[in-house]
Amino acid sequence: MPRDRNSDGRGEAASTSKGGGRSKTAGSASHLEGTTLEQRIRIGPARLYVRDEGEGEAFLLAHGMWCAGHMFDSMVAELSTTHRVVTPDLRGHGKSGVPRLPWSVVDVAEDYLRILDALRIDRVILGGYSMGGMAAVHFALKHPERLSALILMSTSGSAEPWMRRRELEALAGAVAMTGAPRWLAFQAAYGVFTADFRRTAPDVVEKWTDQVEAMSRKALVQAVHAVGSRPSLEDRLGSITTPTLVLAGHRDWHLSSRHSVVLSEKIPGAELAILPGVGHGLPIERPGETVKLIRLFLKQVGARSASKRA
């Protein structure tokens, strides 16, 4: 049965478990092998659906606009063998609630903090994709003490150019009137996935478009406005102290890999990997390679930390 609990006034969570036939409290630090804990965490304007699986050092993966936490399923299957992996559906997406009022990328960053507090996680590896990565940059600037590493995937620390903002405003207006008809969902998929991936993995692309179609007009518009109105953080990137890995696809026509180059150049000590033949949907198109790069980076971070302590 679901159980409710309060987390020191910072949030509340109802939890159920799958796979192991048993449930556990939201703040537990480890899990039964093969068990996925599903929770709904109250963040104020909405309840967030969160999956929590594996054990070890905590790793939070945050998805992009018009996506959901399940986009990381292949990555989670690998990472959860060594880490506790938390994958929320961000506000307005997937199984999470839709806030009554508009929200911003900064609000999403504060949602990360509320999730960590509700789950009683002190420090985390934060991996953010696209919109989730934009919020992760804000989080790294405001809450560096809660991070052990930062993974930025197909994302940006810059504001949208003026012309792109106008395009997003027009998109929001169209969606407000029509929702996300099939043609619009497929058009969005063309910006996320390469032609090669759309041809070889049509079932994955269809699952993604189905999820976009299922979102409410309000949720779709809120997300577009949040991404389109984000502020530039370029002049603040130099103050990020968290070890950072920046990943991008060379064939990302949706959010050019130039944004990732800027991140890697301005964040002190950041490492950059641009994957050839990959589009914006990096974690979906190349989950195994993405995890391999993350593991190598984390191993290097651990080695540097051990060297400093010696």
What do you see in this structure?
The protein is of the alpha/beta class. It has one domain: 3-Layer(aba) Sandwich (Rossmann fold), CATH 3.40.50.1820. It has helices at residues 73-79, 105-118, 131-142, 162-178, 182-192, 195-200, 202-214, 217-228, 258-266, 282-285, 287-309; strands at residues 3-6, 12-18, 36-42, 47-53, 57-62, 83-88, 124-129, 147-153, 244-249, 271-275. It has a 10-stranded mixed sheet with strand order 1-2-3-4-6-5-7-8-9-10, sandwiched between helices. The radius of gyration is 18 Å and the shape is globular. The model is unreliable at 1-10 and 19-32 (pLDDT under 50).
Describe the structure concisely.
The chain has a single domain (3-159, 232-309), classed as 3-Layer(aba) Sandwich (Rossmann fold). By secondary structure, it is α/β, with parallel strands linked by helices.
**Count of alpha and pi helical runs:** 11
Instruction: Report the top-level CATH class.
Output: Alpha Beta
What is the number of beta strands?
10
Rounded to the nearest angstrom, the radius of gyration is: 18 Å
Largest sheet: 10 strands, mixed
- Uncertain runs: 1-10, 19-32
| Helix content estimate | 40-55%
The chain-level structural class is alpha/beta
The secondary-structure element order is EEEEEHEHEHEHHHHHEHEHH
Mean pLDDT: 89
CATH superfamily: Alpha/Beta hydrolase fold, catalytic domain
CATH architecture: 3-Layer(aba) Sandwich
Protein topology:
Blueprint: E1 3-6, E2 12-18, E3 36-42, E4 47-53, E5 57-62, H1 73-79, E6 83-88, H2 105-118, E7 124-129, H3 131-142, E8 147-153, H4 162-178, H5 182-192, H6 195-200, H7 202-214, H8 217-228, E9 244-249, H9 258-266, E10 271-275, H10 282-285, H11 287-309
Parallel strand pairs: 5-6, 5-7, 7-8, 8-9, 9-10
Antiparallel strand pairs: 1-2, 2-3, 3-4, 4-6
Helix pairs in contact: 1-11, 2-3, 4-8, 5-7
